[in-house]
Design brief:
MamF_MmsF, mainly alpha, membrane, disordered N terminus, elongated
Length: 126
């Protein structure tokens, strides 16, 4: 197992060869942090992805990761709501917001450092 495999297991990726510009970092940070604002969770990373995807791979990567993670969280909420019938969903409805906030903060920190970050447990649809 090499360093790349180890990093992908723990939800991180190697440093980019060229550090991203300040504006790229800012947009990458916004794509993560705006995702936890109620009501715009999926919309913010989607808009950033659609507007900035051709301008830089760093912003595109982070916006895509944030969008995929928010879609995964939304699907988990839907499944949890269905599982409320058997009471298991209640536990998930308490855990999901905490997991969402913690992982978004970690991703935001990584983006501010100019590093690529892949969310663990994320369905990659985009």
């Amino acid at each position: 197992m090499n360093a790349q495999d180890t990093n992908s297991i723990f939800g991180t990726a190697d440093m980019p060869p060229v550090p991203p510009a300040s504006e790229e970092k800012t947009m990458a940070i916004l794509s993560h942090i705006l995702a936890i604002v109620p009501g715009i969770g999926i919309l913010a990373p989607l808009v950033i992805y659609l507007v900035k995807r051709n301008e830089g791979s760093f912003v595109e990567f982070h916006a895509r990761e944030s969008l995929n993670f928010q879609i995964t969280i939304l699907l988990a909420y839907i499944i949890s709501a269905i599982l409320i019938i058997v009471l298991v969903g209640l536990l998930f409805l308490w855990v999901l917001p905490v997991v969402n906030i913690v992982l978004v903060i970690v991703a935001t920190i990584r983006a501010s450092e100019g590093r690529y970050y892949r969310y663990p447990f994320c369905i990659r649809l985009v």
